[in-house]
Every structure is written in structure tokens, then in C-alpha cells.
Amino acid sequence: MLRWLSQKIRSGLAKTKGVFAGVFDLLRGKGKVDQAFLDELEKRLYLADVGTQATTQIVERVRQAFRDKEITGEVEAFVQQQLRELLGNEDRGIRWSATRPTVILIAGVNGSGKTTSIAKLAKYLQDQGKKVLLAACDTFRAAAVEQLTVWAQRLGCDIVKQQQGANPAAVAFDACERAKARGYDVLIVDTAGRLHTQTHLMKELEKIHNVVARQIPGAPHEVLLVLDATTGQNALAQAEQFSKSVHCTGIILTKLDGTAKGGAIFTIKQKLGLPVKFVGVGEQLDDLEPFDPEAFVAALFEK
Ligand SMILES: Nc1nc2c(ncn2[C@@H]2O[C@H](COP(=O)(O)OP(=O)(O)OP(=O)(O)O)[C@@H](O)[C@H]2O)c(=O)[nH]1
């Protein structure tokens, strides 16, 4: 059954659908599942940014299941099933803490859409009636605190912050205290964008992590890594490095609307072992959606 998929994601997926058209045109063609067909399938999946490993796996399974048989709707259904499997079927909801507050740490490199995603996530949770507190722990970059403050004002959401250059672990400490004392449901913690080469920033993230864990039992309940879909397979390489240093629980994949490389989503689970929990499909506050693999694959294959 085709599940509901918002119009935003549908239109956001236009570019990625454009390249996937190559895949489904082939699967809806005539002829046999012969070597030429398999080679072509491999090429088209690869061009759709599905990634080498996942592409090879799908083509091999199609070969085993349909070798020399006629191309029918069954082959397409099989490929769709393979793509769904690559996305995994675990629960993608936020892991709520039994007691308030639930703490969500947000990590990711600069420019990935981290700050915007925090604002969107806050809005999404506010819309569910949650009382949200933001912690501006990206004290490393001049504009970061400012940017988050502007979003907080627009959202009517409280924020804990200090001057640029302040100790981010101290901001995290204050934020935890405030969240506990005033009964916030969720504390969303922004952290400085960092690359694996920036060791001091990695250490800083660890410190924030430790402070939060000490202040609130079981925290952080989520560590979401923000990845920019427009960088395709490169986002994966970056994330692989990243998740070696920090234990992440899920991915927010941003800018899906601006790219034809959305196929990269199929390798995230396989390479990182992490579920995509949310996707960003625009620059506005409402442009964040919980990720639904079934609906996603169905939408990709819609004419
Ligand atoms: N089209 C589109 N643009 C997005 C999306 N998410 C974020 N952006 C844009 O991407 C740019 C970078 O977003 P930020 O949220 O500032 O990114 P950041 O990771 O915090 O980066 P720094 O501010 O450089 O640390 C902004 O222009 C955002 O409006 C999305 O889902 N779709």
C-alpha cells in the first residue's frame, strides 16, 4: 500500500526522480534479463548515486532471481524491494526518555544545514505540543549563536547561550540545569561543525556529550548527524569518519530538494548502520519531514 507522502517531499524529490527515471524506464522495457540488461541496470543505478556496493548487490540479486527470464513487473517490484531493504526497517521515531527532558545532540560539518535543521526540528516538536529548549553550544563560529537566536525568536522558543568563544561544555551544563528545573520536554543541543581532522572540536563534542550524560540520566537520547544530500556519496565518506569519533543514533539528510543525488540515501544505512530519521526538503521551518522508506521508494518510482 502506498503510504502518504507530503507534496513537499514529492516536489522536493523531482531532481532525484529525474535520474531514477533511467532505472524504471529500463525496468518497464521489453526483452530479457540478459547480460546487456544487467550491465545497463548497473550503470543506471550507479548514475542515480545509489553507490557501488549497493548497486552491485542489487544487480547480483536480480541476476540470481531473473537470469534469462522475461522483463516483467516482477523485476521492478523486486528492485523496489531491494531498495527498501537497503533503507532498513527499524523504528525511526525519536527515542523519548521516560523522564523529562529528552536530550537531542545535533552534530555535523559546517554548511550541512545543521542550524536550519535544529530550527525545523524544534518547530516539528513544538507542533506536537512539546516544550523545547535550545542550547547554543556552537560557540566556535561567530555567527552560529546569533543565527540560532534568530530562529529561537521566530519559534518563540527559549535558548541558553553565552558569548562567542565561551566554553561549550559550560553552556551545555547551564542548558541541562534549566531544562530540568523548568520542565522542558526536549533539549536540543547545537554543536560546532567539525571535521574529523579538527581534533580539538571532536574533543569538545565529547565534553558536551559527557556533561549532558552526567547531568541527565540516559542523555543524550539521540545524537543526530546532519548530512547534506547535495554532496551525494561524499557526504557518506565524511559521515563515516565522523561516526568513528562520535556515537550517532540517526541522520538528518538535508537539501534533498536541491539535488539529483538523493539516491545516496540508499547507502547510508549500509555504510554507516544508521537510519535516516528526518529529511530536509527546503529552507523554511516546515520543510522537515520524518523519513518513510516505503513512501520514499514508491514516490521515486511514480510516473
Ligand atoms: N534547499 C534547502 N536548503 C537548506 C536545507 N537545509 C538547510 N538549507 C540551507 O543551507 C544553508 C546552510 O544551512 P545552515 O543551517 O546555516 O548550515 P550549518 O550547517 O549550520 O552551517 P554553518 O551555519 O555554516 O555552520 C542555508 O542557506 C540553509 O537555508 C534544505 O533542506 N533544503
From TrEMBL:
Binding, GTP: 108-115, 190-194, 254-257
Entry's Gene Ontology BP terms: SRP-dependent cotranslational protein targeting to membrane
The organism of origin for this protein: Thermogemmata fonticola
Subunit description: Part of the signal recognition particle protein translocation system, which is composed of SRP and FtsY.
Protein name: Signal recognition particle receptor FtsY
EC supergroup of this enzyme: hydrolase
Matching PROSITE patterns: SRP54 (PS00300)
Higher taxonomy: Bacteria, Pseudomonadati, Planctomycetota, Planctomycetia, Gemmatales
SUPFAM superfamilies: Domain of the SRP/SRP receptor G-proteins, P-loop containing nucleoside triphosphate hydrolases
Keyword Protein transport: no
HAMAP family per the UniProt record, alphabetical: FtsY (MF_00920)
Known EC number: 3.6.5.4
Superkingdom field: Bacteria
